[in-house]
């Protein structure tokens, strides 16, 4: 697994639960180190051990923790680069949703050896969507739930998200757009600099 993914997990845990908790996770995983390097590739087995350790050490369902991590990745000021990558998808939340099919390719433009599973958005009715998250990365759909929720807040829209199970070898997230411009969204300047 790409080091960027592992360092994202590390950043989330240290920011949310503290450095000592992260050390506990890594000790429980038994990898023999406590820090990931963003530009290295790690064996999938190591990342899987970290996820199991994360669930055990935090004592909460992994799905919930990964959803919180997705929210963290968009809302934390230190992760502004990801938010910018996502906001380039559209001026509105619906445009952003339609841009998700291209997200793995856009991520690869930024980091050539980062391979994210495919995403496919299907519009069921006006304001009703299903997002198919292809297999290939454990917990991907859970992280995407957090990202979708945080991006709705970022645009100021009110949405209802539901993990709708699996179809066609993909995790499906049901998205219902309840109200656009429900609240004031965060400011986004297309020409702004990443920090």
Characteristics:
about 200 residues; alpha+beta; H-NOX domain; 4 strands; heme binding
Structural write-up:
InterPro entries: H-NOX_domain_sf, Heme_NO-bd, NO_sig/Golgi_transp_ligand-bd. This is Haem-NO-binding. Residues 2-156 form the Heme NO-binding domain. There is one protein chain. It is built from eight helices and four strands; from the N terminus they run H-H-H-H-H-H-H-E-E-H-E-E. With 195 residues, the protein is of the alpha+beta class. The protein has two domains: 3-59; 91-179, H-NOX domain, CATH 3.90.1520.10. The longest helix is centred in the last third of the chain and has 16 residues, at 140-155. The radius of gyration is 17 Å and the shape is globular.
In short:
This protein is α+β, with helices and mostly antiparallel strands and 195 residues long.
Instruction: State Rg.
Output: 17 Å
CATH architecture heading of the largest domain: Alpha-Beta Complex
CATH class of the largest domain: Alpha Beta
Estimated share of beta-strand residues: 15-25%
Low-confidence stretches: none
Strand order, largest beta sheet: 1-2-4-3
What order do the SSEs take from the amino end to the carboxyl end, as H and E? HHHHHHHEEHEE
